[in-house]
């Protein structure tokens, strides 16, 4: 059971914006890591774009299970895990991360933010803490 990615995004107009992300691609071949990380970023953005505000869903993509939670204010979180990782734990993690993120990062920064400009360092810690 593994977590591969934990992302915080904003579903705004005209597109979905990645605000912060953490990845664990250590189980992949060194030469595949960059493309796997790019795939996870793209998939996360696509799933948030296609999800309704205020919704939760689990989507199977290749051998991964992507858990998405889009809040009514447009803030969204995506966890990409293997098929064995418990769904309930993923949604508990997303609730915790999005609540903390919304307290620490100003809502005014969501629409224009990027991973380079948003200062929120807890994602890597959560990703390693929730590894099984």
TrEMBL record:
The secretion signal range is none
**What InterPro entries has UniProt attached to this entry?**
Longin-like_dom_sf, Longin_dom
Q: Which UniProt keywords apply?
A: Lipoprotein, Membrane, Methylation, Palmitate, Prenylation, Protein transport, Transport
Q: Which domain of life is it from?
A: Eukaryota
Q: Which residues form the Longin domain?
A: 8-127
Example GO biological process: endoplasmic reticulum to Golgi vesicle-mediated transport
Pfam families in UniProt: Longin
> Where is this protein localized, as stated in its record?
Endomembrane system
Family designation: Belongs to the synaptobrevin family.
Name used for this protein in its record: YKT6B protein
What is the species of this protein? Turnix velox
Q: Does the keyword Protein transport apply?
A: yes
GO MF terms listed in the record are: SNAP receptor activity
Q: Which Gene3D superfamilies does this chain map to?
A: Longin domain
Q: Name one GO cellular component term.
A: Golgi apparatus
Subcellular location, principal: membrane
Task: Name the gene that codes for it.
Answer: Ykt6b
Record's bilayer topology term: Lipid-anchor
